[in-house]
Amino acid sequence: MLPSLLTPIPGPKSLSLAATLRRHESRNVTYLSPTWPIFWDRAEGANVWDVDGNRFLDFTSAFGVAGLGHTNPGILAALHAQSARLIHAMGDVHPTAQKARLCQRLSELTFERWDLGPGKVILGNSGSDAVEAALKTSLLHSGKPGVIAFTGAYHGLGMGSVATAGLPFFREPFRAQLKDFATWVPYPHCFHCPFGIKESFRLEGDPFPNCSTACLTEIHDQIAHAIAQRNIGCILVEPIQGRGGIIPPPRDFLPMLRQICDEEKILLIADEIFTGFNRTGKLFACDYFNVAPDIICLGKGLASGFPISACVGRSHVMDAWPPSTGEALHTSTFLGNPLGCAMALASLDLHANPETAKQVRTQGRKLRQSLQSLLPAEQVRGAGLMLGMETPKALRAIQRALTDGLLLLADGPESNVLTFTPPFQITEEEIAFLISRLQKYLSS
User: Fold this and answer.
1) Domain locations in the chain as residue ranges
2) DSSP 405
3) Which burial class, exposed, middle or buried, applies to 228 when counting CB atoms under 10 A from its CB (0-12, 13-18, 19+)?
4) If exposure means fewest CB atoms within 10 Å of the residue's CB, which of 79, 129, 174, 176 is most exposed?
5) What is the β-pairing status of strands 417-420 and 119-124?
6) Per-residue burial over 188-205, b = 16 or more CB atoms within 10 Å of its CB, e = otherwise
7) Number of helices (H) and strands (E), helices first, in the chain?
8) How far is residue 50's CA from residue 57's CA, in Å, rounded to a whole number?
9) Which residues contact 219 (CB under 8 A, 6 or more apart)?
10) What are the phi and psi torsion angles at 431 (to 5°)?
11) The pTM is what?
12) Phi then psi dihedrals of residue 390, to 5 deg
């Protein structure tokens, strides 16, 4: 449904709640101003209602979580059924059947699907948890603490994951407390090449750039130099960068990383927290490149709204962890929560249906083509329903969009990339409404 606004935005109830937050929440968390934010009350499909009764159209999927739609009926039914039986268990002591089934299902959809044998899982509560489990696994596997990461990368804000952040905004305030184990190399950004190479940025009809081999040669050489100088145990990479500005790499980038890892006997860790579960039009973004990582980090769309994540690795890699003797080396109180596991299992059934990925590719093409009617093609990038539009008017457009009933976000180090990650069932009418408003924002 299209937006329906009953009050000025934000409405009086949102403004009152903002005043409460200003008094009682750490001031670093929620941005508060006379024009921001709205406070959510309920959501369904691609729509969100605020506490003042205003209906919004959500092109964010709430940070990419609700790809299957807000309060998806099948996932909601799984939540209700589970909540009537058991809300909490003892995940690493006396777990539930749902935990065992979820680990099995994650193995089936990752390493077994890639014909690499069974995968093994460490469940967590957030994407950052999954990344930190992967980093610990790398150290246990090789004894080498070093990590190759990339400029523009976002892997979460835990003290381990933020140490690999390629966005200095998140890392630098805490540098004095961080262990120096990461080495950053440039992420191949064919729209703003870090090496000044000007080549055709995309093949006709191809969602991925056609970058010069000179760029990849330079990245290869920098990685090789880091491996020679430091005890590198893994390469940590987003197959398509998200918070860095929706940056799809050239097609040969991930295969190159896979080859380096194989030659150097180090691990390739794919952070698919944002890109996973059909967000890009494939079950996982690494499927576009025919590359299987050694570890894959999952979150966001995994349970369509419950805070649960997973670090899934090849069996022999994960067996670097010692067997539990009754005290787990890496765990948490809410590990394998039955509500989250039940919702994740219901979500995975929907994601495993090929029609889901097909829907994302179809609607993604329509949205991309519509966005390209507003700006030159090189300013619109991404894959599936993970698209970005680069414009210096991004932040102003977000604020104006809110007053028109549209929920948008911006990414990139300079917050100059409007991002579009809507629920998968977004309609042509809803896309047309977005485009009509963007046309107004970008022309004035």
Assistant:
1) 77-322+330-351
2) T
3) exposed
4) 176
5) unpaired
6) bbbbebbeeeeeebbeee
7) 13, 15
8) 11
9) 185, 186, 188, 253, 256
10) -65, -45
11) 0.96
12) -85, 125
Judge whether 236 and 148 are in contact, CB under 8 Å: yes
CA distance 121 to 417: 34
Strand-pairing partners, residue 297, are 271, 311
- The CA–CA distances, whole Å, from 284 to 139, 202, 356, 361, 410 equal 25, 21, 12, 13, 23
Supply the DSSP symbol for 126.
S
Sheet holding 386-390, edge to edge: 380-383, 386-390, 417-420, 409-411
Pair 292, 255: CB distance under 8 Å: no
What local confidence, expressed as pLDDT, does residue 209 receive?
66
**pLDDT by residue (tens digit) across 64-73?**
999 999 999 9
- The separation between the first and the last C-alpha atoms of the chain, rounded to the nearest angstrom, is 27
pLDDT in tens, 380-406: 999 999 999 999 999 999 999 999 999
Q: Cα 344 vs. chain centroid, distance in angstroms?
A: 16
Q: Would you report the helix, strand and coil content of the chain in percent, each value rounded to 5?
A: 40, 15, 45
Out of 3.40.640.10, 3.90.330.10, 3.50.50.60, 3.40.50.280, which CATH number does the structure's domain 77-322+330-351 have? 3.40.640.10
3-state secondary structure of 157: coil
The answer to whether 36 touches 9, Cβ cutoff 8 Å, is no
Chain centroid, CA 352 distance in Å: 18
Q: Which residue has the tokens 């349970």?
A: 303
d(CA 1, CA 3): 7
